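Components:
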Amino acid sequence: MTDMPDTTLTSHPSHDSPLEVDTDDAVDYYTPGAPIGDTKAPDGPINERWQTRKFEARLVNPANRRKLSVIIVGTGLAGASAAATLGEAGYVVKSFCYQDSPRRAHSIAAQGGINAAKNYKEDGDSVHRLFYDTVKGGDYRSRESNVYRLAEVSTSIIDQCVAQGVPFAREYGGLLDNRSFGGVQVSRTFYARGQTGQQLLIGAYQALERQVAAGTVETFTRHEMLEVIVVDDGDTSRARGIIARDMVTGEIETHLADVVVLASGGYGNVFYLSTNAMGCNVTAAWRAHRKGAYMANPCYTQIHPTCIPVSGAHQSKLTLMSESLRNDGRMWVPRTKADCEKDPRSIAEEDRDYFLERIYPSFGNLVPRDIASRAAKNMCDEGRGVGPEVDGVRRGVYLDFADAIARLGKDGVEEKYDNLLDMYERITGENPYEVPMRIYPAVHYVMGGLWVDYDLQSSIPGLFVTGEANFSDHGANRLGASALMQGLADGYFVLPHTIRDYLADGPFEKVDEDHPAVLEARSAVEKRIEHFLTVNGTRSVDSYHRELGHIMWEYCGMERTEDGLKKAIDLIRTLRDDFNRNLKVLGTADSLNQSLEKAGRVADFIELGELMCIDALNRRESCGGHFRAESQTEDGEALRHDDQYAYVAAWEFAGGEAGTMGKPVLHKEHLVYTAIEMKQRSYK
Amino acid sequence: MNLTLKIWRQPDAATTGSMHTYEVDDVSEDMSFLEMLDVLNEQLNAKGEEPIAFDSDCREGICGMCGLMINGEAHGPVTTTTCQLHMRSFTDGETITIEPWRSDAFPVVKDLVVDRGAFDRIIQQGGFISVNTGSAPEAHAVPVPRDDAMRAFNVATCIGCGACVAACPNGSASLFIGAKITHLGELPQGQPERDSRVVNMVAQHDHEGFGGCTNIGECAAACPKEIPLDVISQLNKDLRTAIRHGH
Ligand SMILES: Cc1cc2nc3c(=O)[nH]c(=O)nc-3n(C[C@H](O)[C@H](O)[C@H](O)COP(=O)(O)OP(=O)(O)OC[C@H]3O[C@@H](n4cnc5c(N)ncnc54)[C@H](O)[C@@H]3O)c2cc1C
Ligand code: SF4
Ligand code: FES
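Structure:
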């Protein structure tokens, strides 16, 4: 989409002024904690920090690497790239995923592309511009040194992938092609038709399998990590392993190592319906959170405007239609409710409301994701949605290609959008060349995740977090084509350097399988499984998941209010009680049992959902992808409050009675910008 | 619509399985095939009968996790993945038979779930380009003719679902290997290891118990990504060249 102009700097200074909030809606729900900060990024000019850190990070000599073991949970871009690279370096790596092959991690589904500051188009791109766009796109809620590094290593990613045989799109001269994508004015997005994630992941997967053959990496497929093992070795508590369940035999396994990496992806499925794969979960991250890893900005969710709407109560997931469709499609709804049931082709031009063009005349259909999503939701809330009624509401708006077809011809449109329109027809049974497409926003990505420092280490020593599972690079909103970049940056080029500084102190003292910390983690897992199988209630796991999703979408989705969030917290607590007493999971613990797998994931989603609502309640400002109704300008636009909320909210698990959440502890990391000035967005 | 389903149930790899019959009512044509099975599973759970195990993850046709024999056809009657098949392809009152992939190299894990680990082991034997992280030259150092890059891409879209094997009367995975050989063989970066790649991957293929190819073509007909049959000719050609080179 087109770039947004900056309006002048709001009056809020970004340096070291104390962040005092005017009203704290969440005051009854949490305990204030000590501030935290990143201690790993070196001082000095931003463009020298990574080089300095790489130099200062201690080396591990090649002979010692064979004595150091690394567990990596996740084989998406972030996990597979790290496993391959650490294997090549000679460490002993164990790689885990819940699918039957590492190649199926959810990164495979990414469509649009991957950013890199190559400046092949000579259109003014640079590392600094990619850095600037990412911080600004994230609405000044990310950590600037991390983002700068991301932009800096982006160019090496493309070199690496090309050498691996990733078949990126090329120009006639044989050089790589680029397109402009997701809110920027330069063309820096590399792509492989609509299957960029697939091609990048296959590259990383093949590098991983090469290391399996070389004997440095061992893969554990159909294994679900259910607990992290934290061992106190006298002076420090360190992550030293995981408990995983073999999903085929049900065996509970202990895996020990010198260091643990979580690359377990995002938790968008807390909303039940999302564009994520069915198995995407928060369990790995949440189990670590319960053991002491802080969860940062959990309420930061990205909602994508162009997805195929829900068609009925049976819906199990939502499908993303590329954002690029908005370049030619026009979004509209009928002016009056009475027309909503009519065949759209019979609705006269003057009876249509092209709402984005009306509200945002200068950007029209190309406003950013969050604005388009919220406007579409407002239309449906007003009762002017189209398509089938689900639970009494029509949740859909038209995306109309009639003008584009008139201009470019049907062939022109077909060529430009490849198989997208066919995919739409296959799913909905409607031909988008004849009837306007129906779309609706859906949860797509989470910017929130486990808190990490510049080294990507969490608040538990020896537990590193990469990819969508961490929080660091995208602030309150992510630019298109930047998640793939982050996953590969973390795994190929960042973690392998920072983890060696940690491993330089190893090998750590051997931990036995009967160490109390191991036994405690194992028995916690076994008890939980036993519990799920013996509740013997009446409701299926899916029914709870669906209900949780409904609460989250309604009250912690695109638009949030104090009352709504408080209500959501009550509803979630009630749901949780019922889940504990009335769940019905059949089958056994010692076989493939998909209901049992889901039960563990949904239990963790319920707890996460509560924390997300508390986080959203605390943040009484509208910023990035999320809108707090209490914080808007006179004409209804998002209003950020840098003087009060320029912090990362890092939550520490507290734990209350009877296994409840208790009052989580809030640690604030004050965001300080030295290389960039904070500005408010404007789209009118 | 109302349907009768005949579904293969098998508790685990060691126990023999059998077909079971279920009725499912109120199926809407907008449901995907897997959503229809979700509905059935909810009904079974409510009745106290263990839900049917089947694989899926992305449910948008790209991860390759799903895969069922539907009325004897791999991924059913439409050229797409099982997760992208919709109930509007069926009619009210129909009886549908649902089985797992059938192949010696893909043992059944439970019900409709099979073990496709053999595919990973084939890739381990050469389905890659050996380049350590950080050692890559500048991406523009080697231009790649656009047509070569496109052909490489077209076959690199294989999702590793295994339908080709399930559809083949011989249980051969030649289409899967041919796709990988062609993907890497079309690119300049793939040349140095071209001979060893094909020899080692084919050896692993045979070792896993996949059958030989007799050019029947069922694989390409079943492939949801429309990988063309000519990748198998490419595979054979590369194999002959490698042998001529002394491999
Ligand atoms: C439809 C769609 C399209 C997208 N398109 C783009 C795009 O064009 N450009 C872009 O930049 N981004 C895009 N994104 C976002 C991007 O794809 C993801 O953010 C990114 O791929 C996440 O990578 P990851 O490696 O962090 O996690 P994932 O790829 O999600 O991998 C997670 C891994 O963790 C494993 N795992 C999880 N939990 C456990 C557990 N408990 N035990 C064991 N293993 C576990 C899984 O098996 C998997 O291997 C898109 C996302 C979606 C949903
Ligand atoms: S070649 Fe086709 S059928 Fe065979 S695994 Fe690949 S995508 Fe599936
Ligand atoms: S579930 Fe991913 S391809 Fe069908």
